[in-house]
Amino acid sequence: MPIRSENRDRYPPDWPEVSAAIRKRAGNVCEGCGVANGALGGRDGSGRWWKARPKGESMARLDWPEPGEHWWCDLDGREPLLLRIVRIVLTVAHLDHTPENCDPANLRCWCQRCHNLYDAATRRAGIQDRERKRAALGDLFAGGAGG
Questions:
Q1: Fewer Cβ atoms within 10 A, N terminus or C terminus of the chain?
Q2: Virtual CA dihedral for 26, 31, 37, 43, nearest 10 degrees?
Q3: Angstrom distance (rounded) from CA 50 to CA 27
Q4: What is the DSSP string of 23-38?
Q5: Element (H or E) spanning 118, and its range?
């Protein structure tokens, strides 16, 4: 996940090496759902991963769908489903949401979906906190100077 600018200084200088070690520990697959880093495909409504298939062949090379495209996926013989193509990028999550705590037991290698599902409540609380602070500043300066 992108690191918020106000949190960048909280990560250790060797964060790239730490996060690479966690991805290596995980075998370069999501520790939540098992999808591989760089995989191309889409997810159905339940979150199940469906690996993309070539669209055809062009000049003796397979023609693959691009991220952002939509693709009709044959779901094991069931009615086809329209999925949006994505490319998986693995991220490293802090279970305690504390960037300074880089103990390997506190870190997980997750795809964006698994990371977002884990962080949802904390992220929502942070958004609400920032909105309250903005509103408080607005109340403090309501009416302008000399008002």
A1: C
A2: 170
A3: 20
A4: HHHTTTB-TTT-PBTT
A5: helix 112-140
Dump pLDDT digits (tens) for 53-98.
888 887 778 888 899 999 887 766 778 888 999 999 999 999 999 9
Amino acid at 133: K
Amino acid at position 134, single letter: R
For the chain, what are the domain ranges?
5-140
Take residue 51 and report the two structure tokens written for it: 């690996």
Read off the tokens for 33.
């759902």
The rounded distance, in Å, linking the Cα atoms of 69 and 11 is 35
Cα distance between residue 131 and residue 124, in whole Å: 11
* 81-87 contacts at long range (C-beta below 8 A, 24 or more positions apart): 81/44, 83/41, 83/42, 83/43, 83/44, 83/50, 84/42, 85/40, 85/41, 85/42, 85/52, 86/40, 86/41, 86/42, 86/43, 87/38, 87/39, 87/40
**Using CA atoms, how far apart are residues 112 and 93, in angstroms rounded to an integer?**
10
